Amino acid sequence: MEPDDTIWAIRHRAGEWDASDIDQLIDLSKSHPDDPYLLDVLGDLSRVVKHPSLPDDFAFRCYTQAVAADPSYSAAHLSLGYWHDTMGNLPDAKNHFLLAIASGSDEIARVPLASVLAQLGDRTSAYVELDKCVDSEDLDVSRMRTEIENGQHDPLDIDLIECEPGG
């Protein structure tokens, strides 16, 4: 079975995932070790499903391997940005969100980049990133503006599995 078929089947059981889904993707990654989409989704799934035998940094390893397989794969840079943000590694988060934007994830990476910039104390640059969003009335953009104005700069809660195939 090709990775995309398996990933599609797993993703469409949203909320009903378990450790066997991770095992299935790990097995698939053995025959497709350089598939950035597979590695990115495997990392995402490992962050939302408990798996007793995986190390704490398993998602990070998946995302890093995805970027190594395709340095321009924007979804993996986006995932690494979120991972670093939640780990408190803000300069690395900023770097990966910028790489995601440079690789084509323009809109989707600007809101979390703004959050990181605000956490780093650069509210002006955070607002500049939000101003670059095409739909300035978008709920995520509006929410981020409000959070920055109110000084709320906690790492974002995200649904990682929502990444689109291929980026």
UniProtKB/TrEMBL annotation:
Read off the Gene3D superfamilies from this record. Tetratricopeptide repeat domain
Q: Which InterPro entries match?
A: TPR-like_helical_dom_sf
Superkingdom assignment:
Bacteria
Protein name in the entry: Tetratricopeptide repeat protein
